[in-house]
Design a protein that fits this description.
Shape: globular
Oligomer: single chain
Radius of gyration: 19 Å
Helix content: 40-55%
Number of strands: 9
Number of domains: 2
Strand content: 5-15%
Length: about 270
Amino acid sequence: MVNLARGRTSTWSGWTLGGPGRALPPHSALGPDGALHDAWPHTARIAPARCRMSHDALPAIVDQVRRGDAWLVVRERVAGPTVRRILEEMTRQHATLEPSWALALVAPIATVLADPLRARLLARVGPDAIVVDVSGRVRFVGFEHWAPVTALRPSSAWTALPAPDEDSFAVVGTLFALLTGTSPTPEREQLAQLQGRLAHVDDAPLREALLALCAKNLQSRPTLRHPMTTCAQALRQAQALADDVSPATLAGLVAGLFPDDVERERQLRDEHS
């Protein structure tokens, strides 16, 4: 389980939301001023909101129950390396991440953003929250990082103050890091500066489909107009990639980098089939 109030994890595929008495520090983006010191009014609505979400890139919710003063949500087990672990292993093996693979790792997560933002939750996208399972599917598993947000507001990127539009920029920033090997915000640049950097990257090709995704979300999710428009502006000048990357390609990448993990997972599935 993952306790959102303390950030601890164990082997159970679920997470618990904090109850009364587990205080959060005051925070300008986390709900009404009168409730900032009490975690319960905020975290109690994350579980129902998460259970209403359904997306191929999100692990399925198996069950939910309120136990005493806390919610318990049991979710699908996702076995596979995180994007950060993939990058670390590729670096160790002196392997090269193809630009199309980088896009394939990030684009599914971009499509996840609409539902949590519509539920006014901040997902905190990042390389530690993106997993490629052994079948090659890209999944977003960073539930313990989610937090409720009550106001759409301009924000700076990668600061201590979260806002809904930061998830969109986190997708762009993660993709930038995958393609270039460098952080887009080495000095914690302000939002306008980050937009300028991403809009003028000549050696980081991106696929046109991500722009199409921005346009689609603008049509279907009016509340995403600001963050997705800004993402589109940052990506529009990038060079397009032609070919899609299939799950089989990513499964081969995972199997090549982590053969022991894949074999262990296969044995576990055989034992429980």
